[in-house]
Amino acid sequence: MAQLYFYYSAMNAGKSTALLQSSYNYQERGMRTLVYTAEIDDRFGAGTVSSRIGLSSPALLYNAETSLYRDIASEHAAQAIHCVLVDESQFLTREQVKALSDVVDNLDIPVLCYGLRTDFRGELFTGSQYLLAWADKLVELKTICHCGRKASMVLRLDSEGKPFSEGEQVVIGGNERYISVCRKHYKQAIEQGSLQAIYGAQTPLN
Ligand SMILES: [Zn+2]
């Protein structure tokens, strides 16, 4: 029986690397995968999933209008698909998460979604909300805070490197303006309006 998986984490936990490894494992056994990524993530050029350690794969793009069930069913009818992998799945709509669950339930194709759990305000992304609610398997990909605790929160930094938690739930793209921290240090950084509690006098590496 196919299942719907949600691999979630803060930023820089190696989500794309994990996706590419899983896709490769299928292909190595002669099986066909479909890889999707969000149209708004154009860090590496349109239609590519790339990991920070140098792996990459072509990808189909999705946006809020994409009919994922129709597209996947049509591809599957033309040539069997053995696994669907979705990067940046936090940007899926409620309807698209439902559509991916239909791919699992009606077409019996496993669907592996990779995404951020929360935004820089500590709020769930829509796609993550419904994946957390409806996925068969939830898997946390861990990364660590500067202090060594698990980093579960994302801090947004302004152009002067000061953290803030107001404003739009904007696209999360590169590494430069967001860092992953533990909950304790997230709260301290927001309260103090600086990264002093996390790094002390040291300069952050990124
Ligand atoms: Zn910490």
TrEMBL record:
Positions with a binding annotation for substrate: V170, V171, I172, G173, Y178
Q: What residues form the catalytic site here?
A: E88
Question: Which residues take part in binding ATP?
Answer: S9, A10, M11, N12, A13, G14, K15, S16, D87, E88, S89, Q90
Give the Gene Ontology MF terms in alphabetical order.
ATP binding; thymidine kinase activity; zinc ion binding
Root EC class: transferase
Q: Which Pfam families match?
A: TK
The places in or outside the cell where this protein is found are: Cytoplasm
Q: Which InterPro entries match?
A: P-loop_NTPase (IPR027417), Thymidine_kinase (IPR001267), Thymidine_kinase_CS (IPR020633)
Kindly report the protein's main subcellular placement as a broad class: cytoplasm
Among SUPFAM superfamilies, the record links this protein to:
Glucocorticoid receptor-like (DNA-binding domain), P-loop containing nucleoside triphosphate hydrolases
Q: Which reaction does it catalyse?
A: thymidine + ATP = dTMP + ADP + H(+)
BP GO annotations: DNA biosynthetic process; thymidine metabolic process
Q: Which UniProt keywords apply?
A: ATP-binding, Cytoplasm, DNA synthesis, Kinase, Metal-binding, Nucleotide-binding, Transferase, Zinc
Q: Which residues bind Zn(2+)?
A: C145, C147, C182, H185
One Gene Ontology term, aspect cellular component: cytosol
Question: EC number(s) in its UniProt entry?
Answer: 2.7.1.21
Source superkingdom: Bacteria
- Whom does it interact with, and what assembly results? Homotetramer.
Hey, which family's this protein in? Belongs to the thymidine kinase family.
How is this protein named in the record?
Thymidine kinase
Organism source for this protein? Pantoea conspicua
